Amino acid sequence: MNDLVAKIQAVLPQVAKPARYTGGEWNAIVKDHTQVDLTVAWTFPDSYEVGMSHLGSLIMYHQINRRADACCERAYAPWPDMEAKMREHNIPLFTMETWTPVGGFDIIAFPLLYELTYTNLFTCLDLAGVPLRSADRTEAHPLVIAGGPCVFNCEPLAPFLDVAVLGDGEFVIHEILDAYKQWKEAGRASRRELLRRLAGITGCYVPAFYEPSYRPDGTIEKYIVTDSAAPAVVHRATVDDLDAIDFPTAPVVPNIDIVFDRAQVEVFRGCTRGCRFCHAGMVTRPVRERSPEKVQQLAREVVRNTGYSELSLVSLSTADYTDVANTVRKLSAEMTCAGVNVTLPSTRVDAFSVQIADAVQQVNRSSVTLAPEGGSARIRRVINKTVSDRDIRDAFKAAFTAGYKAIKLYFMIGLPTETDDDLRAIAEKGHWALEIAEEILGRQEARNVRITISVSTFTPKAHTPFQFEPQVGIEETQRRQWVVKRACKDRRIEFKGHHSESSLIEVLHSVGDRRVSAALLRAWELGARFDGWTDQFRYERWVQACVDVGVDIKYYAARRKGYGEVFAWDHLFAGVTKEWLIDDHMRAMAETEVADCRWENCDVCGACMAFGVQPVLKPAKEGSL
Amino acid sequence: MKLRIRLAKQHTARFFSHLDIQRTLERTLRRAALPLAYSQGFNPHPRMSFASALATGASSEGEFIDVDLTDDVAPAEFVARANRCTPPGLTFVDAREVPAKGDSLFSLVDTAAYRLTLSAASVAVVADAVAAFLAQDVIEVAKEGKRGTRLVNIREQVYDLAVEGSLPEPGGARVVVNLRAVLQSGSQGSLKPETLAEGLAQVSPAFADTVLVGTHRLMIYRREPRTGALQEPWDL
Ligand code: SF4
Known about the structure:
The complex is a heterodimer of chains A (625) and B (236).
Chain A: H1 3-11, H2 19-22, E1 38-44, H3 48-51, H4 55-65, E2 70-76, H5 80-88, E3 107-111, H6 118-128, E4 143-147, E5 163-165, H7 169-185, H8 191-199, E6 204-205, E7 210-214, E8 220-225, E9 234-235, E10 263-266, E11 268-269, H9 279-283, E12 288-289, H10 292-306, E13 310-314, H11 324-336, E14 341-343, H12 351-360, E15 367-373, H13 377-382, H14 389-401, E16 406-413, H15 420-446, E17 450-457, H16 474-487, E18 493-497, H17 500-510, H18 517-525, H19 539-549, H20 553-557, E19 572-573, H21 578-589, H22 607-611
Parallel strand pairs in A: 1-2, 1-3, 3-4, 4-5, 9-19, 10-13, 13-14, 15-16, 16-17, 17-18
Antiparallel strand pairs in A: 5-6, 7-8, 11-12
Chain B: E1 2-9, H1 18-31, E2 48-50, E3 59-68, H2 75-83, E4 90-98, H3 105-108, E5 111-120, H4 123-134, E6 140-145, E7 148-153, E8 158-168, E9 175-186, E10 189-190, H5 193-203, E11 211-223, E12 230-231
Helix pairs in contact in B: 4-5
The structure holds iron/sulfur cluster.
The site of iron/sulfur cluster has 12 residues of chain A, from helix 22.
């Protein structure tokens, strides 16, 4: 037994949930490192339970491991109790599959799904023994890459990343691995040479080759490309046909309870509903559906290979899937007798969606979750959440008719142009639900109905029409929460407000630039870990960090940005052009809605032209259902 | 038909909690496409019942579950098929058919045999503590319960205790001692190995710096109170 294994075994009984670190899951892929040319440590900067729930990670694990010449192993950010033990006993960050130190891998890949995981990236690199700054790494160190939705503005992490990979990973990862392999076989000559090769791949952004300059007022003057190998604007990598790519039908099955503990099949990618605050809907355009035949085939395989008792059909809005009703009905009928439930991750706000959810969601019949996002019809036009008051009422009716006794409603506050009337309209939706409950269930039954109103705070995200908008700030958020809360006048309505302080720090990340990187690092030095977890987040730590390095949070969070400003993410092209974003922002101010281009006319946002793709809808083939 | 199954959990699987094992077994048996009988209701679960929960971190070769099946499967075939679908560390050791209407396993067993691994100053320290322990009739240890702390006589929960072997610890002056312990473990009361170690330190102060480094469950039994005879779950 080698020394590291002995040390790990000695600390495992002393930490919470040791199975987070042991590996040994069904379908985990263990390869002999001496038999492959490349090793990748897929390092999720959050807990095992969150990381294992991420479908994108399962997809990439499969993509890399299906190559005979490469192996991909997983690592997760250790929870603070484990981090302390690792430091105490000199245990480096190690992988689940073979307990190999991450620092010895060729490539460390970080999926970035949520801004408040960034400080965990430092923990992982530091425990791996890898210099935090790209500039300090040598040919002997792993290549540090990152992907996922957050990389579309990865400037706050720019000094720490060698390469950020934008867009769909399925093809571009192989280009990266091939380039790395050539460089490695040629004797690992110079790290810069490797970065130059990678900079030439569509989707690969090498921050070191771009140099921002600033104006006296603090805004960005321009970005200069400092290496001829790097393009002026980095385009996203885009997969055009989901039926043509390999999907993981034998994903790793966790031994412990995780956040999404179920089989997942992706039914489509992208969303063009056009909600103006939504980052995911802007950086994944256009909609590309997988065919129902393929979805059903994958669903059967993944259930057979995992033994899960729940299958989830996932996408940004599964009720929008062309063949949703048939696919759900068919899979449900097939699987229920084997004890497998089919579920949809979220419910669109209308009667149809509630009915589909009800047809399948036998696991949790107690409540249905709906996200109207905006309280008044006016604010919903501003944010382009094209849900009418009638849709909301119909969804409530469908829910109570189906026998639900609880409804959870999600809203956003602090939205551009928002007034107190819009806020009171949020509470009003709760009262509507109660009225409808009384109509349908009768006064007596309706006494037991529970309505939960959860409000989060609008956070501007890069590449969205609302990127120009400020956040309202902590006091104002609290005041607006109070306005909603006070308007909830029935004890059956429960109000939940989101932490205003962590929303503020999230903006620092989401629309921050390279100067913010110093604050991130400082916050980590001051102990910031798992900032997305309310029990771990400490606002004072972030305030202190910003003071220490001279970063003004208000400059990033509270300032309205001009249409003509250069943004830290302008050289990263996610699909929507800046012109379109400006147009759409103006339409928001005019309270004008935009139709969904998958069903209506193209709005010329830029994605299809730039990437040579188009919206792909796939109705079921004649006779196949 | 109902099968009684003996399982082992070792290596990484010893860190599974009781719920983890339950979930993992469900998935294992489903992957193996064995004809599980499901409970009724909106959220059907395979009909399985477990003997008793083992602490997370302990290994075992004496875990028992009863599984209801809708079709007959030869026990040997059941074991072979299930073992092709288990995650590393979890092993189906044996299976036998039991009467479909019998009592639940949980209510049948009340005793467990363990191999405890201790890191001690010397074998003599452990042997002396064991001898002192067995020589007494009453050894009271404080136990946290729902209604506050109370004293429990743990001596009557210990049916057998013996040093089984030892090894010098690599590079150290200490030794690793294996202790075989047969302890009460069931719905009427259970003695945890950690509490036993406390009791040993109480009767023999020299034992105080001894560390319980490993717990391995060997088997579970039903104990005949008068004769002390132990019956394995197969015979119940
Ligand atoms: S280019 Fe047109 S069709 Fe394509 S995503 Fe944009 S608006 Fe939709």
